[in-house]
Each structure stands twice: as C-alpha cells, then as structure tokens.
Amino acid sequence: MLHSNFALPPCILAAFLLFSIAVNGQNQAPTAAVPDDTLHKAKEWYQRFGIRGYGQVRYNRLLETNSQLRCEQCDKSWGDDGGIFLRRARVVFFGQVHKQLYFYIQPDFANAAGDKRNYGQIRDFYFDLGLDSNNEFRFRFGQSKIPFGFENMQSSSNRLPLDRNDGINSGLANERDLGVMFYWAPKRIRKIFSMLTREGYKGSGDYGVLGLGVFNGETANQPNNNDELHYVARLTYPFEVGSQIIEPSIQAYRGQYTMRNNQLSEGVMLENNSKTFTDERVAATFVMYPRPFGFQVEYNWGNGPEFNPETGTIESQPLEGGYVLLNYRLPLNDQFLYPFARYHYYEGGKKHELDARSYKVNELEIGLEWLPIPNFELVAMYTISDRRFEDFQLPSNRQSGNLLRLQAQLNF
Questions:
Q1: Are the beta carbons of 179 and 223 closer than 8 angstroms?
Q2: 294-313 as b/e: b if 16+ CB within 10 A
Q3: Which of 104, 114, 179, 268 has a CA-to-CA distance to 50 between 20 and 30 Å?
C-alpha cells in the first residue's frame, strides 16, 4: 500500500483510473506499470478472509450388543449413558491477508470438561509465511496438525469412517500440537491437493510434498512438560495413473514424552521411576483416490509408554498398527454416495490416556455416506469390534460387540 504520507491528487488518480478502464476493461486488473502494492488497495485485510465450518450430531446405540464397549479417543458417547451426541461444532476463520501470509483459526464448541459438555477450545491457530511469490516454500507457526499419516490430516468433515483408526491416531491426540513446520510443494501439486478435497475425492489437504517440523510433543492444548522437542518429517507425492490418482507417503517422528500427574493412577509404578519415555514412530501410506474406486492403507511401527497389567508398571514398549480402507464414489445426478469398508488393528499403548492405557484392537466397519446436497451429509456405519483396553484401575478388560452408528453433518 501507499504510505500514509504520500497520496496522488484526486484529479490525477481519477484520470488514471478512467484511462485504465478504457484500455483494459472494467473486469481486468490495472496495467503492470502500477506498483504491485497498489493492487491490494481495493481490499483491506479484513475483506480478504472467510468463515466456514461444520457440525456433527451422532447416535451410537442402535443394535448395540455390549454397553461396556467403549473408545475414549474415538467418541465418548459409545456405551452406557451415551445418547444423542454433539461430536463436533467447528467454525473456521481463514484468510490470505497478504499474498505471502495466510492465517487459519478453528475453535471447536463440542468439547468436554469433566461431566460438562460443549465447551469451546482452540483446535487450530496458525499462520503460514510464504517465502516466494507462489508460496511453494512456506513456514507454519502455531498450533496445527502434525504431518504424520494421511487419515490424521484428513478433515473429520471429509473422512468416511466416523473416527480415525487407533493405529496411527494413537500417536497424536487431536492430531495437533504447538510447533513450527516447513512445507514445500510445487504450484502444480498444490492445485492437485486442493482439487482432491474440493471435488469430493476425500483428500487430506495441502501439507506439502515435503514436510519438516519441530513441536512440543505433549499433544494439543497441553503445557510442555520437558525441555525436549519432537521432530517430524513427511514425504508424499500424488501422481496420475490412467484415470486414477495415486499418493504414496512415508513419515516419522521422534521425541521425549512426559506423562502428567493427572494421567497417572494412585499406586501405578513407572519404569526407572521416570515419567519421561522415548516416543518414536515411522509410518508408510498408500492412497488411491476414489475415481471411482478407492483404496487406502497405512501402517506404523514405534515405541512408547504402555501399561503392563502383569506388573502394574508403565513401561517403554513396542507398538504397531494401521488400517486398510476400500471406498467408492458414486454420483447420482446432483447427489453422491460413498460406500466404504475399513478394517483396523492396533497393539500398544496410548500415551495420552490414563496410565498409558494398553490396547489391542481388531475392528471392522462397513458404512455408507450420502450427500443429497453439498451442505448436508448422512453416514450410517455398522461396527464389529473387539477391544482390550487396560490400565491400573482396570487391569483385565476386554470387550467385544457390534453397533450401528449414525451421524448427520452440516457443512457451511
């Protein structure tokens, strides 16, 4: 913009604008002779941002065979006392306030605090600083998703299964943390990332071809409990094979995780009398987008804290798990149907749960997503689950059962 101590006389400015319109037409930008900053004069920063969001309402008790079957990380309305549930209520504020500066703020108003529900909490608060005119190289500062796993980064408004798989998602509660990320992707690839989400192919969004970063490692909205940072790296590349788009990826992170006092039961023991554990994982991903048939597979291996029910001790243990997903995109006039099936497996601890709760999960989900209009979708998903989840308070706990889950979603 022009500095406040410099302004063209109104008559000269008016003559210049009339000349520009006459030469270029009303819908074209001024000629290249005009300084670049003047092009932004027409819109102030507050005129270059938008608002969007989504909400999800669920019910999980239909055809339920075991009310003790639960999934704390997935959906707190599973099982006993679960009724109609507001799973997400999110509003996103975003904008390109400068050609090289983008911001994104997303609160969620469907959070729990003790036995109360529907409190507001920040999910994302970050800004991207582009290092070149096309923003192919950019830094991201703030709380955002950590680039680890395709399904982790896929928006909950865009994902087919109602919850993320235990195997990958067990590494990062709410998929987010405070940190600084570096992303690189050519302009052409960034357009592909955008198209895959915009046109209903269930993309994960634009997290670069290469992603590198450092973050606290204590998961979102938690204080940092040690002086060690986590490090993450991801490499992915989408490409066309005939009518299909394929995207393989590899990613890894490593750091030191310190358990908080409110994560520990009274009487539980700690390996080496330390609340700090090495937290490390590597994962491989393969995605074939639904054009019209789709296929996804992800698997990760690593080490982290896990409760040992035989000794009553939280120990450093190996972990592994992942999923395979089949889906199909079926247009019906202006509507869309997405039949899908997913099997997922996980064996290991969940560091952010009570006593680094020990898990072994085998779960099959068969579902259908229906979009009658772009702003509304309905999902029905039948779940067949076998879960062992044990901590110091429940050292022997294996539950299995089936249930039909329903979700209505608003998009705006």
A1: no
A2: bebebbbbbbbbbbbbeeeb
A3: 179
In DSSP terms, 307 is beta-bridged to 314
pLDDT of residue 317: 98
In 3D space, the residue among 341, 383, 388 whose CA is nearest the CA of residue 363 turns out to be: 383
* Average pLDDT of the segment spanning 233-249: 97
Integer Cα distance of 27 and 4 in angstroms = 28
Identify whether the C-beta of residue 146 lies closer than 8 Å to the C-beta of residue 176: yes
pLDDT at 19: 34
Q: Contacts by 58-61 with C-beta closer than 8 Å and gap 24+? A: 58/84, 58/85, 58/87, 58/162, 58/405, 58/406, 58/407, 59/83, 59/84, 59/85, 59/405, 59/406, 60/85, 60/403, 60/405, 60/406, 61/403
Neighbouring CB atoms inside 10 A of 71's CB total 21
Given a cut of 60, whether residue 8 has pLDDT beyond it is no
What is the CATH number that goes with domain 43-411? Answer: 2.40.160.10
Measure Cα distances from 265 to 293, 349, 350, 384, 387 in Å: 47, 15, 15, 30, 21
Residue 260 is given by DSSP the state -
| C-alpha to C-alpha distance for 99 and 373, rounded to whole angstroms | 33
CA-to-CA distance for 5 and 268, rounded, in angstroms? 68
Whole-angstrom distance, CA of residue 324 vs CA of residue 345: 9
- Residues 213 and 234: their CA atoms lie apart, in Å, by 9
Give Rg (Cα) of the chain.
Answer: 24
The domain locations on the chain are 1-42, 43-411
- Residue 193 tokens read as 């990332």
Tell me the pLDDT tens digit for each residue of 97-122: 999 999 999 999 999 877 788 999 99
Cα angle, residue 397 at apex, residues 263 and 364 outer, rounded to 5°: 100
What type of residue is 98? Answer: H
Distance of alpha carbon 140 from the chain centroid: 15
Identify each DSSP E strand in 289-375 by its residue range.
293-308, 313-328, 330-332, 335-349, 358-373
> pLDDT tens digits for 311-326?
999 999 999 999 999 9
Question: Would you place residue 43 in the very low, low, confident or very high pLDDT band (cuts 50, 70, 90)?
Answer: confident
